[in-house]
Amino acid sequence: MMSPKIRLAFIVPGGRFNECYYWDSYFACLGLLELGRLDLVRDILYNFIFQVKHYGKIPNANRSYYLCRSQPPFLSDLAVRTFKSIDNKEEAAAVLRAGILAAIKEYFTVWMSEPRYDPTTGLSRFKPPGKGIPLEVEEGHFDAVLYSYAEKYACTIPEFIDQYNFGNVNEPELDEYFMHDRGVRESGHDTSYRFDQGCADLATVDLNCLLYKYESDIAWAIKNVFNDKLPIPAEWRTPGMTDDHVEVSASWLQRASQRQESVNKYLWGPERGMYFDYNTKTQKRTTYEYSTTQIRMRRRSQHQYREVARPSQHASPAAEAMGFSIRMGAASDACLGRAEEIWPFA
């Protein structure tokens, strides 16, 4: 059941960021729930559901030029939290059903489809499709990158941008640069030296733990609220689903188990007692310590719990209590108080 209102409210970060961002909205909703603003949280949730239904994803933010990329997935958690905040059981179940159906579609069409999905590891990456220069940046943002290309084609930088965006020039290295740039923007951790090696090739700790959370949330909802049987209506079906397709909790628990095994196989660094992103191109773990190593999965081994809980010998004193180190000059590395860096999953 969708909200009967035509217009649904949402929260914006502020300043020039005057649109509804995906994961920014999620963290705003956590505070709104504490304040008792269930009405606004429900509006934001329905906005997300609408976007998945009509666009196949929750875009980075609600502008047309964001349609190729998303942000870290929090829909299942927001749906469950909203469900638990509604007193009327029938209404709560209807809201949860809409949220879980959207989360299932988002899971398959966005995160478990190539190019984001890596079939070799079974893990997912921030690797949105698309081509060209991001439209949301301030004028001159990429001038240092584009200067040599403008010289090569004997034109101004704005002229080169037009030529490149319309596909009139072929520059594979620049294509790869912007592929990784889009990945960083989709990750939400822009900017961070963590992604110097190329974001789009990384099966990241945070994304795969969030998808594990999806698998667990969906299994919980199907088993405990929908009597272990959730029929998928036509508008929510993804390729491969039949007209009578029904989701059950066992299949989602199996997906969670498989992801947990893959995360421990590819992302766990026993020599340093931490989880690290895995480069699917070089087939090696990265070594950059970051707050995302603290994201918890429910079925770590006891040894892994002890190791992750131990403060890093490389972390600065100011950051040790938070579990990560600082390298100056990058926003996501330097902001200890940034909500997105301190995630609430237990």
Automatic annotation (TrEMBL):
Record's keyword terms, sorted: Glycosidase, Hydrolase
Keyword Hydrolase on entry: yes
Alphabetical GO biological process terms: trehalose catabolic process
EC number: 3.2.1.28
GO molecular function, one term: alpha,alpha-trehalase activity
The keyword Hydrolase is assigned to this record: yes
Catalytic reaction list: alpha,alpha-trehalose + H2O = alpha-D-glucose + beta-D-glucose
InterPro entries attached to this UniProt entry: 6-hairpin_glycosidase_sf (IPR008928), 6hp_glycosidase-like_sf (IPR012341), Glyco_hydro_37 (IPR001661), Glyco_hydro_37_CS (IPR018232)
Superkingdom: Eukaryota
Name of the top EC class for this enzyme: hydrolase
Gene3D superfamilies in alphabetical order: 1.50.10.10
Family: Belongs to the glycosyl hydrolase 37 family.
PANTHER family for the chain: CYTOSOLIC NEUTRAL TREHALASE-RELATED, TREHALASE
Protein name: Trehalase
Organism the protein comes from: Ajellomyces capsulatus
